[in-house]
């Protein structure tokens, strides 16, 4: 009996990439010995992505779509696709063709060799990334590796293959602000990393801005580590001890009759510095409390507006 593969593809404003991606995947997958399906998750696109998906799904029985009620974010779109995937293995990839479909046979080979997770990471010599993008990427992964309990390769991507037993464990996770690149590492199992050179985007532009990347970095660290709280505690302890060093100066000045020279500038600077430090520490603590507050609401990670999965499976049964 053939093994089955579910290829999960989150989409956001990718109307011009859908048909081309399906053609490329069909060309590669037709050379393999697997049954397969494509699960496109439309994450609140503002263009005609949904219309493009319906058109392709009408002509290709292997194409399924899941339309979310709004834009929940890429990781939640991935979660939606993985929750509905039925394959013996699940492959996740982007819709812009920067993740080369030509790499799928190698990923499948490692899976057949016994690896439970086969993930990819970008090579340093990425010809399609600018200097700022490369620097920001290095800073992101260095930052998260230092402050979290995970070790992620620079440029690790959402192009990966996961065995069914890994997917079953991830399906149980319902936490707030999922970070799949870290979550896949966290679950463990036998993993293999493959370097790759991203292709140029077929059409469109990257949707991640600097502010989104910064938010992603902070959220990812807090999702896997409490080290920022330890750092805040250490800062408070350090400055508390440092302030005690001022006591001998006060005593000596008092008993020896030295006149202390008052300076408004130094006083204001000191007050502003420690005030800012306190706000920073409170902000870190507040962020963790905020995550706990949102998590206790137990809201769903995503809401599905429409899908053709039920209809197509019903047709197959008939």
From TrEMBL:
Organism for this UniProt entry? Mucilaginibacter ximonensis
Question: Which E.C. number(s) belong to this protein?
Answer: 2.4.-.-
Going by the UniProt record, its keywords in alphabetical order are: Glycosyltransferase, Membrane, Transferase, Transmembrane, Transmembrane helix
Please list the residue ranges annotated as the Glycosyltransferase 2-like domain.
6-170
Signal is among the record's keywords: no
Its protein name is Glycosyltransferase family 2 protein
Q: Per the database entry, which stretches of residues form a coiled coil?
A: none
> What are the TM regions of this chain, as residue ranges?
229-252, 264-289
Matching entries from InterPro entries are given as: Glyco_trans_2-like, Glycosyltransferase_2, Nucleotide-diphossugar_trans
Q: Name one GO molecular function term.
A: glycosyltransferase activity
Q: Does the keyword Transmembrane apply?
A: yes
Highest rank taxon of the organism: Bacteria
């Amino acid at each position: 009996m053939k093994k089955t593969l579910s290829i999960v593809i989150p989409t956001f404003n990718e109307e011009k990439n859908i048909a081309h991606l399906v053609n490329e995947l069909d060309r590669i997958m037709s050379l393999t010995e697997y049954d397969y399906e494509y699960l496109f998750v439309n994450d609140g696109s503002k263009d005609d992505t949904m219309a493009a998906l319906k058109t392709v799904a009408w002509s290709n029985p292997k194409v399924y779509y899941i339309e979310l009620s709004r834009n929940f974010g890429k990781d939640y779109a991935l979660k939606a696709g993985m929750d509905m995937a039925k394959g013996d293995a699940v492959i996740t990839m982007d819709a812009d063709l920067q993740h080369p479909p030509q790499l799928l046979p190698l990923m499948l080979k490692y899976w057949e060799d016994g690896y439970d997770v086969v993930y990819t990471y970008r090579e340093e010599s990425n010809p399609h990334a600018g200097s700022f993008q490369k620097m920001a990427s290095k800073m992101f992964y260095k930052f998260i590796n230092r402050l979290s309990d995970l070790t992620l390769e620079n440029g690790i991507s959402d192009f990966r293959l996961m065995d069914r037993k890994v997917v079953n464990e991830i399906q149980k996770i319902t936490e707030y602000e999922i970070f799949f690149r870290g979550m896949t590492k966290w679950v463990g199992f036998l993993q293999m990393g493959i370097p790759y050179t991203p292709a140029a985007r077929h059409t469109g532009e990257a949707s991640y801005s600097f502010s989104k990347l910064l938010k992603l970095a902070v959220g990812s660290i807090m999702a896997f580590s409490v080290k920022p709280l330890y750092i805040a505690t250490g800062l408070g302890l350090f400055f508390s001890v440092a302030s005690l060093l001022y006591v001998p100066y006060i005593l000596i000045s008092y008993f020896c009759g030295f006149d202390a020279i008052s300076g408004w500038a130094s006083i204001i600077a000191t007050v502003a510095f420690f005030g800012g430090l306190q706000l920073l520490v409170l902000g870190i603590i507040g962020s963790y409390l905020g995550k706990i507050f949102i998590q206790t609401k137990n809201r769903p990670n995503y809401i599905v507006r429409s899908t053709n999965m039920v209809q197509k499976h019903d047709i197959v049964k008939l």
